[in-house]
Fold this protein.
Amino acid sequence: MIIWAIETSCDETGSAVVIDGRVRSNVVASQVALHSEYGGVVPELATREHLRNLMPVAREALRQAGIGPGVVDAVAATRGPGLPQALMIGFKAAQAMAFALERPLVGIHHHEAHLYSAWIDGENGRARFDDFVPNVTLVVSGGHTLLVHVPAVLGHRLLGSTLDDAAGECFDKVGKMLGLPYPGGPILDQLAEKGDPGAYDFPRPLRDDPGDDFSFSGLKTAVRYFLARHPDVAEDEAGLRDVCASVRAAVVEVLAVKSVRAAERLGAECLAAAGGVTCSRGLRRELADRCARAGLELRLADPAYCTDNAGMIGVLAELKLKAGCRPAAEEEDVRPGWALPEVSGSEGAPA
Ligand code: KG4
Ligand code: ZN
């Protein structure tokens, strides 16, 4: 089966071709440089960039996969959640492509695609669902922090999510307070590598709460007050590194402790993690340490499939079509506030 996929939920314009469970091309035009000037994503600018980039990116995905549009079996696109106008650009283009090619359109839930991206091999693009292990998956990015029980492929149940800021948002906002360029997450992670994580004791919100929800806005505020009280602390490189390491230690400890606890409680053999923040070296190490101690297998999404990309959209679309899900109707629209649908294994999730 040949899937042509499109992702435009936020600030990355992505298109990919997935053929028989393997990502053959995965093209992403990032808008990071554009938005960094404003310290965050500006929806109007994102929309204009998607409009400008989508067709070249989609064409390039076909070219890299060595196919023409005529052989495509289905078109897939992110239907939600995300920025309304940004979603509209990709979803409506995909609808038009599907209409012109007389092929089905599969509308994909962005978080659900992140959820299964940990099973895509970063080297060869193969989706390894034959290796699937019942798991708890942490989906952690700039817009979302979710803990999901996945006892079977296409059989998942949301356990908890953030009550306020996402973990990546916390990194990005702390980065802004420290004067780092947007998005702060990757730079904070890099600076933290050479800092002392024990230098400052920031709160670990909800770490010891038995529930599966997260909260990061209190930590962000604690850092703001700390910096107001100690304006000189991050002035030199060493101080900046220590603040970054201490903030990162607080965030990754909460994420890892709660994820491992949920996996143990549910008797899952494996913990998986995906989404942009899973690029963090600190988080990858913390999860590896805690999983090893708990005797849990760890499945981390490859960095190429962590941040927003259309490869994961195409992989999930193929899974769903093969499971017999109903393609989207032609008149369907985007769903910017779409909550993660709960799915039980065999039904394969109607789109
Ligand atoms: O999945 P993604 O590309 O977009 C959303 O769906 O939100 O994730 C972007 C987020 C940003 O908050 C960014 O700062 C964070 O992922 N991020 C990182 C790293 N790389 C990206 N956070 C910490 N360490 C990193 N290396
Ligand atoms: Zn995302």
